[in-house]
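anyone seen this seq b4? input:
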Amino acid sequence: MNRFPLSVLELAIVGQGGDAGTAIAGTAAVARHVESLGYTRIWMAEHHNMQHVASSATAVLIGHVAGQTQHIRVGSGGIMLPNHAPLVVAEQFGTLETLYPGRIDLGLGRAPGTDQVTAMALRRNNMSAAYHFAEDIRDLQTYFSADNADGRVHAFPGEGLTIPIWILGSSTDSAHLAAQMGLPYAFAAHFAPAQLWAAIDIYRREFKPSAQLQKPYMMACVNVMAADTDEEAEWLSSSLYRMFLGIITNERRPLQPPAALPDILKVPEVYNAVQAMTACTFTGNKESLGTKLSAFIKESRVDELMISSPIYDQEAKRKSFSILREAI
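predicted toks r here
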């Protein structure tokens, strides 16, 4: 457990009183900090039409963060592939891998990363693209392959480069696909934990070795808030609970400073919805977090943890990652 792989998921969330510029600067600062702590990778997620999320141009942000760091892996958690032509993704990530060799990951998701109206604006006449997710992944693999030399369409740069492809998901559908294709699998338990255990079982049971991966490799993304005391960590987590409350009630705001939770959480339907989304949230000091997360790792048998930490204060956020590294 001493050096269990830890990684970070960043959405460049805009905090109260900030803007996209400060959010992106905060993401870069987190990347530099966790790199110094020995974290394995930092990923950015594609979202659209969300005023307080600054990661919509995900490939651009990945390039910025990779340029601000030296050796940590940087990638997408994920690129929502049905929003893009596979050739464009291959060219973008081929360019990133050329600029930052050996450091780029390509995590792929099937969801739109937004509402349906915005998905239509993104995909235009290609609204059935999600049904061709597996086929589009194979196209991407072809564009990256050195064996595509005789193909009529090429990704330059990209062809012949080794860019690890991951399947992302929040349901058992993605687990079946990742296992069938022999690809590493990352599950979004930080906001949709309901099917985590079933997905883990399916992925490990159905896994078929591939040219990229000989045995299953499973990563779970969870929420973590660490501090010097359990009470302080729980206080920091109030920003996360208010963020999810805003999603459920459709009253989205910038990430709020820690504060007492509003009375609407006492409504059973609201409370249950928030609890369902945050079931894989861990708070505490170094000792209590070590105990909680060690138990989770043992029970889930995950190979790596990716951490989402929507903490309002940037100094407290970086400190949380430091305490977590000591805890695991």
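DSSP finds twelve helices and nine strands in the chain. The radius of gyration is 19 Å. kinda curious what u guys think
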